[in-house]
Design a protein that fits this description.
- There is one protein chain.
- By secondary structure, the protein is α+β, with helices and mostly antiparallel strands.
- It contains 2 helices and 6 strands.
- Strand 4 (about 100-105) and strand 5 form a beta hairpin.
- Helices cover about 25% and strands about 25% of the residues.
Length: about 120
Amino acid sequence: MHLRAVPAVVGLLLAAGCASTPASPARLVGPLEGACMAEVTTFAQDALKRKVSLTSTDFSTASEVVLNKVAPRDAQGRLLDGAIRGAPVTETLRLSRAGNQCSITHVESGRSRELRDCRCMNTP
């Protein structure tokens, strides 16, 4: 009786292993626009807790986009926010694909989300 259960358990473990495909770096199929642009922008703004400007070419040739936090300045070029000094703060967004599903990750926090409105392909 125990011997019959072993093949069933092994079969279930193998099937589970096949179902979980590791994520690979990916890029978008086509430009970042429409519902996909809205979905990516919303994720980025939620993850970075600030307004984010993306372009239609972001994620079109690479799996990562590096965003710089721009320090606000007055008309003479002086910093308006005394807390921001030195080099600009960078944040990285990474696109990946597991099976047919696209996901985006904010590298610094580890936050990620599946992108339902975007189509992506593995990067070469």
